[in-house]
Model the fold of this input.
Amino acid sequence: MITTSEDFKIAIKSTVRRIKIKVEVLWANLILDSSISISALNENRIFWRSQLYDNAVLSDHKWAHLHSGLKCDGTFYPCPSASEANSNQMGYFSSTFCNPSAIFTGSNIPVLDLEFLYSRRILGIVVAGDTQYNEYPVEFNLKFFSGVTEIFNFDVINNTSIKWYKNFVDYNLINIDRVRLTLTKWSKINSVAKITEFANVYEEEYDGDDVVSCKILEQSELDDNTIPCGNVISKEIELSLQNIFSLFNGNKIYDPYSFDNPDSYLKDYVIKNRRITIFLGIDLPNGSTEYVRMGVYWSDDWAVTNTNTFISTVAKDSMDRLRKINLTFPLVENVSVYDLCSQLLTQLKTEVGMSSFKYIISESLKSYIIPYASFKDKNYMSALKAVVSVCQGKCYMDRYDTLIVTI
Done:
């Protein structure tokens, strides 16, 4: 259900209306970059490094540790094991804790290094605390290195956000192969540091004349032409952005997305698998614009030439990612549609490594029992389609990139 204001509902039904489009592109997306690594000082015995750059900020549970006011009341969970880490977000816990003034001092200071096998331009940095404990770093320092040379130093004080982000495009941080995060003050006294995300990310927003065109297609794939049995709903967009000029440090950069443009700060990021979020908006009577989210998509290759005034791509939702991943699943007997879907998607998160993949399965599917089920040389999309066909159900990605399995 999409929530909108009453003014939006009136405006969208008007005979004369002006529709607007807004596009957010996550250009730097480290979950798809295998050349990233994390090292740390004062880390907890259990520490899942890759979770710090998997684009998943929300902690799955309140993970138990001895400085947390641990209670046996069902609200705390044991820290995830190696086999559980792909489906349970934890990140970094420090082995040391701050003092009664919430300050980390001396040898107790937590330090994290974000390291790149290949040096790159830093477009933005995100640092996130723990959403379950509602804790975050209040004061910290970022150092940017090229080799052993410190290029830039940035201090943050009086932070009040669990998820902190800074756009570094204007700082011209090029040839960076390491970023060091040093935590000096925490949001809660006598507590260990808890970091769920420390990564190089960069997102740009486009609207108005920057969006040349955007076509949105939503379609169902049916087993036959009459009965909607086993619906799989997939979404696709065709997007074009203007490539005439972009502003950088107050100056115009022409052909900002061209691969051979040495002045472009994005030329190395115009590649496949960029996350694109689409918003549809309409002007309201009070002069403002209200937007609603249309969905999250993942780009294919971008068409970029020096002769065109725009770049373009075709992007599909995460259902297409499931279509590209094959699976083998052993024979199970007398399993409900709910449990079988849960087992398939748990395998997707743990064995394939899509730890940030989100899904919701309707409780109503527990009443449908499958006598025998097994999959071999099928992809996850076709397997889910076969399972939900038992109850004439459907599966689709919602507008927040969560898989919904329901009737």
Summary: The domain at 30-200 is CATH 2.60.120.260 (Jelly Rolls).
